[in-house]
User: Fold this.
Amino acid sequence: QVQLVESGGGSVEAGGSLRLSCVASGTGWSINSMGWYRQAPGKQRELVAAITRWITSDYGTNYADSVKGRFSISRDSAKKTIYLQMNSLKPEDTAVYYCHTDILETAPPFRLTDYWGQGTQVTVSN
Assistant:
């Protein structure tokens, strides 16, 4: 079982910054990828940023085009933690931000399973 605990959301004016954190806890698995998604009212959940290939330590990063150059995702592998530094925030960044991970079990049947955090609200005002 995996638990994801997010922190760092809040309200900020346009142009401001916020930093989100997500910690994964549990045993018996390895992280395959870990990242952030967001969902604004009336819209589908979308990828914001993710770090992939944890198992091979050949880490890669993916960003939504809308956040490139403004957001930065980073990790502390030993702490199973990721961070999302969000700069130059815009009102259109307002959404609930969800931490996501997919993990590989380290014992049979070696399932690949994904988990979601409870979400943290980010509100950007004009």
Notes: DSSP finds no helices and eleven strands in the chain. The mean pLDDT is 96.
